[in-house]
Design a protein that fits this description.
Layout: E1 2-3, E2 6-7, E3 13-15, H1 24-32, E4 38-44, H2 45-49, H3 53-57, E5 68-73, H4 77-88, E6 94-99, H5 104-107, H6 119-132, E7 137-141, H7 152-161, E8 167-170, H8 185-192, E9 200-203, H9 209-219, E10 223-226, H10 236-246, H11 255-272, H12 277-280, H13 283-289, H14 297-303, H15 309-323
Parallel strand pairs: 3-10, 4-5, 5-6, 6-7, 7-8, 8-9, 9-10
Antiparallel strand pairs: 1-2
Helix pairs in contact: 1-11, 4-6, 7-8, 9-10, 11-15
Length: about 325
């Protein structure tokens, strides 16, 4: 699979852009385990053009992360174009347009998947961004706004016609949010459309190596994207890559191994971030790394309330001592 001149190899597995998840420390972990391409958290176009600190900070990328995309969202064409120019200065490999986020605070303003309700505006925004930057432009969408407007086949053609270099499709409508099972049939319809020449990446419910292989083989997509299944499980990329290459299913890491992974993740968070945010933003990951352990609730409570790095590291050592032999 190639995006413009970027070769991602055969059947690549990509990390989805996720707000408050795909920060530098989490991306480090996913790259470590073999993610073929990654994306930043959602970056607000309004925040970028106002030079808001939180938005600008999300533009920070490192060479070891490449290839990497910066994903932008917004509902105003002029602001999105200006934000794309600003983002380009960070030298990402691609600029990705967020037409897929279903969160109310984004979609109800007409951004993210809210754009699915105004296809002409979506197309015009994309055309202007493509014209404004030299960096390859890609997009991520959903099937449509609701079950009565699943217009992704038409949308895909129109976005390709104005110059996007690849399209990722989440197999749900905006109205579904993350409920129910992702429907890949329309993703397959886009891929099999003879008018489509750009790479098509499928997203939604890729939770296992077997599922990833099935999506490649059944729907012919060029790549698959993993989102929520990577929470507390960055090694899913290694699992999928190994299974696609050899048919081997890797055993799940022991608790001892998960503790070492969580420690590395935590140390990277401390390295990349300043202040308490390096601790606060790890809390969701700690819960996910050790989900399902018996009698874990008191320890989990301590992990997600402590603000002392040394205490957190000691708690992780305790987890290893108490549950370390479990798979």
């Amino acid at each position: 699979m190639k995006i413009a001149g970027i070769d991602l190899g055969y059947r690549p597995v990509l990390l989805a852009p996720m707000d408050e998840v795909t920060d530098l420390s989490f991306r480090f972990m996913c790259k470590h385990f073999g993610a073929a391409m990654m994306y930043t958290e959602f970056v607000s176009s309004d925040g970028l053009i106002r030079d808001a600190g939180a938005s600008v900070a999300k533009l920070r990328i490192y060479d070891y992360e490449r290839p990497i995309g910066i994903q932008l969202y917004g509902h105003l064409i002029d602001a999105m174009v200006e934000a794309a120019r600003i983002a380009e200065q960070a030298q990402p490999d691609v600029i990705d347009i967020n037409f897929g986020c279903p969160m109310k605070k984004i979609a109800n303003r007409g951004a993210g998947s809210g754009m699915m309700c105004d296809v002409p505006k979506m197309v015009e925004m994309t055309r202007q961004i493509v014209s404004a930057v030299r960096t390859p432009v890609t997009a991520k969408t959903r099937l449509g706004w609701d079950e009565n407007s699943q217009n992704i086949v038409e949308v895909a053609e129109r976005l390709q016609d104005v110059g996007i270099q690849a399209l990722t499709i989440h197999g749900r409508t905006r109205s579904q949010m993350y409920k129910g099972e992702a429907d890949w049939t329309l993703i397959g319809a886009v891929k099999s459309n003879p008018r489509m020449t750009i790479p098509i990446v499928g997203n939604g419910d890729v939770k296992s190596p077997e599922r990833a292989k099935e999506m490649f083989e059944r729907y012919g997509v060029d790549g698959v994207m993993v989102g929520r299944a990577s929470y507390g499980r960055p090694w899913i990329f290694e699992e999928i890559n190994r299974y696609l290459a050899t048919g081997e299913l890797l055993p799940q890491p022991s608790v001892s191994r998960r503790v070492e992974i969580a420690k590395l993740h935590f140390m990277k968070s401390l390295e990349y971030k300043h202040g308490k945010s390096s601790i606060y933003e790890m809390r969701r990951h700690f819960c996910s790394y050790f989900s399902g352990l018996p009698d874990f609730k008191p320890t989990r409570l301590k992990l997600v309330t402590s603000e002392n790095p040394q205490e957190i590291l000691a708690l992780l050592d305790y987890v290893k001592e108490r549950w370390g032999d479990r798979g």
